[in-house]
Amino acid sequence: MKKAINLLLLFCVMIASAAAQPTRQMMDSLNRLTGLDYRNMLNQLHITSLRPGANGNDPKAPNAANYDEAKANPYSSLPDPLVMNNGQKVISEQMWWKKRRPEIVEYFDKDIYGRVPKNMPAVSWQVTQVIRDTVGGIPVITKKLTGHVDNSGFPSISVDISLTLTLPAKANHPVPVIMEFGFVFPVGFHFPQMASGAVSSKEPSWQQRVLGKGWGYAILLPNSIQADNGAGLRKGIIGLMNKGNYRKPDDWGTLRAWAWGASRALDYFETDAGVNAKEVGIMGHSRYGKAALVAMAYDPRFAIAYISSSGEAGAKLYRHIMGETVENIASQSEYHWMAGDFLRYAGPLTTADLPIDANELIALCAPRPVFIGGGSKGDGWVDTRGMFMATVDAGPVYKLLGKKSLETDVFPPIETSLMDGELAFRQHRGGHTPVPNWPYFIQFASRYFKQ
Ligand code: GCU
C-alpha cells in the first residue's frame, strides 16, 4: 500500500513537472540521475554505505517496521529545548529568543534541513488569471499567480512558483488565509479523500469550510519550487542557487526549499489588499506536512499551522522507533528532502547522535498555535504517537513563553481533541489523510482568526 502511494505520488510529481504521463524511459532516467546525485553526496561525506530503513511493506522482513510500543523507546532521554548546549538551563523568555533558539536553529540548519543560501534572488509575483466562480455556493475570486524567481545569475534554470489564491468575493476587509501545500493531480484524477478535501460528497470540502468562516485559501505547488526527487536537485531553486552543480553537505534540501517558497507566497500576500497577512496559516499533509512544519518553524510570520501526518522528519520523534526511521529518510528515495549531512545519521552516526529531535522543531514555532494531527488505522508509518510525544515535549517552551501546551502526556484515545492550548493534537479514525481533522483545525483556528 505504502509503495502504491509512493508510486502514485511520484506519478503526480511527474505530471506536475512534465504535464505528461511518465514513460518508462522518464522513470529510468529519473532513477539514474537520482542515483548519481545520491552517490555524489555519499562520496562528499566519505560514506560507503548506509543502514537500510525499516521495511513498511513486509511484517515478516528482518528489518520490518516496528509497531510495538514496548520496543519503540530504546533511548533514555530526548534533547531538551530548554537546556543550552553548555548545560545551562533556559530560565527566561529572553534567554530562549537570544540564546537557545538560535542554537537549535543552527542544528536544524547544519545537520537536518540544510542552509538556505544567503544571496537569495528576488521573486516577482504576477497575477496570470482572475476567475470569478462559486465554491459550495459561495461567490469567490480566484487569482492564479506565478512567482518568477530572478534567474539572471544562471539563466539556464528558471523557477516559476505556482500559487492560487481564492478569496470570498463579498469580503469588504482583508481576510485570513489558509495556505496548503497542494498535491497536483492529472485532469480527471481524484485521490480519494485528499484532492478535493471532502470525506464524501455530502461533507463540505476544507475549502468550503474555510470560506464558510469568511476566510480565503491558497494552494501552493511545491514541485514548482523544487522537484520531489534527488534527480531534480541540480534544478529548481536549489539547482539555480548552485548554478546547476551538486549540493554541498550542508546545503538546503527540498523541505527547506518548499518552505522557502511558502515564505515567498507570504511575501505576496503582504502586498495583496484582500489578505490579512498577519493571519495566514500554513497546512500540509505527509511530506508536505513536514514542509509546512519547517515553514512554520522558520518563518515567524505564519500565524498558525495544521501539520497532518507529517511523520519522520516532521513532527514525529526520531527517537521513537515506530514506522518510518532515520534510515528510510536517508535512503535514495527521500534523502533529497534533507541536508546531505543528515545522511551521516544513517551511517557512521546513529539516531542517538542527533543533536536535536522533533520536539525542538515544534518548539521553534512557539508561541504560535500549531495543530498536529494524524490517523490511526492505516497511518502507522507516520507514527501518530511519536508525533504526540514530540508535541508534549515542545510544551515547556510554550509555557515559558506564557502559552498553554497540551497539558497532558497521556496519549489520548482516538478522536479526542486536545486543543485548549496553543499546541493542539488529534488522532482521527481514518488512515493517511488530513480530511477528518480539518473541521477540528478550523475550530482551533477560529480561536485566533476573526470570522
Ligand atoms: C512516504 C514517506 C513518508 C511521507 C509519505 C508521503 O511514505 O516515507 O515520509 O510522509 O511518503 O508523503 O505520503
Task: Explain what this protein looks like in three dimensions.
- With 451 residues, this protein is of the alpha/beta class.
- It has one domain (2-445): 3-Layer(aba) Sandwich (Rossmann fold).
- 30% of the residues lie in helices and 16% in strands.
- It has a nine-stranded mixed sheet with strand order 1-2-3-5-4-6-7-8-9, with helices on both faces.
- Helix 10 (384-400) links the parallel strand 8 (370-374) and strand 9.
- Helix 6 crosses helix 7 (287-298).
- The model is unreliable at 10-19 and 186-198 (pLDDT under 50).
- Bound molecules: alpha-D-glucopyranuronic acid (GCU).
- Alpha-D-glucopyranuronic acid (GCU) binds at residues 2, 5-6, 9, 286-287, 311-312, 324, 328, 334, 381-382.
Give a brief description.
The chain is 30% helix and 16% strand. The chain is an alpha/beta fold and 451 residues long. It has one domain: Alpha/Beta hydrolase fold, catalytic domain (Rossmann fold), CATH 3.40.50.1820.
Attribute tags:
binds alpha-D-glucopyranuronic acid, alpha/beta, Rossmann fold, 451 residues, 9 strands
